[in-house]
Amino acid sequence: MSNNSIVGSAEEYVMDLLKKGLSKDHIFHNLQHALAVRSAALDIGHKLAFTEEEMEVLELAALFHDTGFVEAYEGHENVSKKLALEFLEGKKYDPEKTIQVLDCITATLPSKQPENKLEEVIQDADLMGLGTENYPVTLAALRHEWQVFLNKSFTDVEWFEMNDQFLGAHEYHTQVAKDLYDEKKSQNQKFLKKTAKKERKGKGKNEAANNGKIIGSKSAQMMFKTSLRNHIDLSNLADNKANIMLSVNALIVTVAVPMAASYISDDLILGIPVGSLLITCLVSMIYATLATRPIKMNGFTPMENIKKGTSNLFFFGNFYKMSFSQYQEGMDYIISDEENLDNSIQRDLFFLGKSLGRKYAQLRICYNVFMVGVVISVILFVIILGYI
Known about the structure:
This protein is an all-alpha fold. Helix content is 73%, strand content 0%. Helix 2 (31-47) runs antiparallel to helix 3.
């Protein structure tokens, strides 16, 4: 804050004016907001190496920019300019700088395109709340004021979607403001999207079903239960088929091949079909084993992965190394939000299906190798017998 007399007098005047002139319903456009905009404008101005005169203009404009709310809500900018002009003329302030202050107040209109650096800075400072941690609180305060003073009421979905669109269309003018506020503004926009989606889902189970969500739709839940059961049954069937192939090939390797080996000593050429049969059995057993081999499991899921929605705590392989408190924390986070729970259910079915697809792909190779290998071995045996 500047220490010169004009700024000090202006601060004292504005503080007294806003404290006395604003109602209890001015919970957003109040003295705290004016001081926050003043602080942000000075911060940006310092980083842009503004001159002392430019900083003075910024500070005066920030202090006066919302004083018009003491008389009017709509069109308060014009009232703010009138109050600022009366004060500055009364202090015999420089006319040229007075015009700059008034232009900066005009620039606080979001629809106004700034014409110089001063106007860019004051507009960025006035909208710095879009990129701060306190955004949800200030947004609720603004909604209250619009309802009280403008008689504008919105459903939750309408309100969050409207502000989502505003944040999406808004851009800070100065690079300093972009560096300071863009990252958090992006997070706030994600908050608006998520909240709007949650509010839409909260209208009822029928609407949730129409949006293609499992939660709230009995038909979708029944379909997923049926799919999960079918996947599990198919997985058991695949394991049984793999076990059959393991048993058959093991029987051939341990019984049929040793018996055939006794004839090889009499005629070595018989080793060709026997070797072909042995290779067939070994390859078939490898793929049958791969089909039944458990997938690699970490047994631990970091909380950050749970929050990102990249892990599924309903599968034991993702939590068996976790402590109960860690598992409980993660599971509480998932079930506390319907979207997280919905995603977990989908992930459970998806990865079960991926595992099942892997099993059947390897099992198909196993059966194909066995079928082709046995046919080739028999053909070789018949040819060799005819040759002998």
